[in-house]
Design brief:
This is Transcriptional regulator. By secondary structure, this protein is mostly helical. The chain is built from 11 helices and no strands. It has 2 domains: about 55 residues, Homeodomain-like (Arc Repressor Mutant, subunit A); about 130 residues, Tetracycline Repressor, domain 2 (Orthogonal Bundle).
Length: about 220
């Protein structure tokens, strides 16, 4: 049977290989947090991880390959979802987790570097998108449970609610420079919960027979 060869850094290793991967990814994260994507160098990562340069070049091949594997590992290692029994409690737990991550001296700088890299490198962007899809999907059940409890309307889009929680926090980190504190995290959760209860995230089915273009034109006419 033919087996497709995996891209560098995409296999799930064990034993010594797992220890090498852990050391290299940790070193890559440190280097990114300290120097940014533009200065990331595989030889420097190998030195930091105390492994041979040949090992790093053979396994990951390129800086983007290494960064993609780092993001994959971060998604796999992320903390599990908290269940509090209420939508607001769950969303606050999510917001506070994002807050702790983004204000951590190492993790905050690491995310800035990864987001900056994703703006100019397709593979890094794909890996970053996968990371966030994984995190959003992990927290989406809290919204589905809220629908089941009658806290929010049926048809509420779980993914949009979770995005609404973290978006203001990333905006503070990357754009506005406003304080990114726990109070801001709690306000983001409260706003998302209130909007969800009001039906802001309910998915509305398009009228039967209306095409995507027609929906766009209809919306533009309504806005005008």
């Amino acid at each position: 049977m033919a087996v497709e060869s995996a891209e560098p850094g995409t296999t799930r290793p064990g034993g010594r290989t797992a220890r090498v991967r852990e050391a290299v990814l940790r070193a890559a994260g440190d280097a990114l947090a300290e120097q940014g994507f533009a200065h990331l160098d595989l030889a420097d990562v190998a030195r930091r991880a105390d492994v041979g340069k040949t090992t790093v070049y053979r396994r990951w091949g390129t800086v983007t390959g290494l960064v993609a594997d780092l993001l994959k590992d971060m998604a796999e290692q992320s903390l599990p979802r908290t269940e509090t029994g209420s939508l607001l409690g769950d969303l606050k737990a999510n917001a506070r987790l994002v807050h702790r991550t983004l204000t951590d001296p190492r993790q905050g700088e690491l995310f800035k570097a990864l987001i900056a890299a994703a703006t100019c490198d397709t593979r890094t962007a794909d890996a970053l998108h996968h990371f966030y899809r994984t995190r959003i999907e992990e927290w989406a059940p809290c919204v589905r449970q809220a629908v089941g409890r009658g806290e929010v309307p049926a048809g509420t889009d779980p993914h949009e609610v979770i995005r609404a929680v973290s978006a203001p926090l990333y905006y503070r980190l990357l754009a506005s420079g406003d304080p990114l504190d726990q109070a801001a995290a709690d306000r983001a959760a409260e706003a998302a919960a209130a909007a969800a209860r009001a039906g802001a995230y309910v998915r509305h089915a398009a009228p039967e027979g209306m095409t995507g273009q027609a929906r766009t034109e209809d919306s533009q006419q309504a806005d005008g």
